[in-house]
Amino acid sequence: MNNGNRKGLNIAICGLGTVGGGTLALLQKNAEELRLRLGAELKVTRIATRTLHPEKLSGIENLSNDPLDAVNDESIDVVIETIGGVDPALEVIRQALVNGKHIVTANKALIAEYGNELFQLAQANNVTLAFESSVAGGIPIIKALREGLAANKIDWLAGIINGTGNFIMSEMTSKKRKFDEVLIEAQELGYAEADPTFDVEGIDAAHKLTIMGSIAFGIPLQFNKTYTEGISQITPEDISYADELGYCIKHLGIARRSEKGVEMRVHPTLLSKSRLLANSNGVGNAILVHGNAVGATLYNGPGAGAEATASAVVADLVDLCRHIQSGAASPVYPPLGYREMPSGVSVVDIEDINAEYYLRIPAMDRVGVMARISSILQAHNISIEAVIQKEAISETVPIIILTHSAEERQLNKAIDAIEALEDIAGKINRIRVEPFHGEAA
């Protein structure tokens, strides 16, 4: 594609749902502001959407329900992919890249699972695949990691990166409500889908963490190695016990550099109530990034929604237009931030991580049960930091234990051994603790 002699861009939007519709509206609403910033016009000339409403799309020259019509249109410079999911979005992006068209996408699943292939295809065809809007909506976290913090060696990042899960945990915490009850409300408010699995089981957050972790640590995208655990097993009792110990429970995505490699994990997490992330409530997102030069920086804002996500889509368009205006022969930055990725850096298996843990153990109200539990933990090199032993509930008593740092493999063996005791009345609930020892967070 040769558009170096033209200042503006002809744009096709594929998918006119929440994000696509919000992008079109924002481009129209801020058209003059964008023209002044660029000295050029960002013009949507084609839209592909499953349901056509020509009366609502006045001024658009070409409408179609087939996205490949847009991809194969020689006049189009940039394809905005807001279809979502894999099919047909993957085919659309592949064909657009082969046709020499730039891509702007909000599709986190596609980037996390197929990004390695797609970035190579973009490079082979000397075009840009931009994806700021795929993570954390309107928060410019991709630019922050890839460009703003480029001078740093990133130590870790931790984020609340799914608004649905954060809303549910916030409501459970503030109003002592059960998960199922709050989920129904989230669906009624439009925060959760009819099938909420991607949100509440952590898949959506894992897609986002995979992308951020790759940029932060210079590793290939490896969604299949990102440990994923949801919030559906969290109870009001866990929240109450955590509060008594000085913690709250948040659904976090954590990526951390360690001696063993890079940890990539999404799971419920106990956080001290004094930490910054502990005070991020509702449907917003918040991400802490710790660099070895700058220390901890916080990025907070709307993680979803039409206008917030459209803001990130259009920001990528502005960057792309400026790049083309400069006459540069190739994309100005590598998509994942590294021209050469570090060698020998692997993703750590969840059983190899070291963490502190919260355990809720349903024990029979018998003499010596605590001693037997302690003996098993000691045999697996797990030391106890704090214990709460509540009054008996019928014949059982909940024992709450906070451990010091231990290897997860050893903890799993200890849990199996404790659950095998005749004194134990059910499954042990385990939640990891993120203390940020010695780190401003």
TrEMBL record:
Binding site residues for L-homoserine: E193
Catalytic reaction equation(s): L-homoserine + NAD(+) = L-aspartate 4-semialdehyde + NADH + H(+)
Pathway recorded for this protein: Amino-acid biosynthesis; L-threonine biosynthesis; L-threonine from L-aspartate: step 3/5; Amino-acid biosynthesis; L-methionine biosynthesis via de novo pathway; L-homoserine from L-aspartate: step 3/3
GO molecular function, one term: homoserine dehydrogenase activity
Binding residue positions for NADPH: K108
Protein name (record): Homoserine dehydrogenase
Family the UniProt entry places it in: Belongs to the homoserine dehydrogenase family.
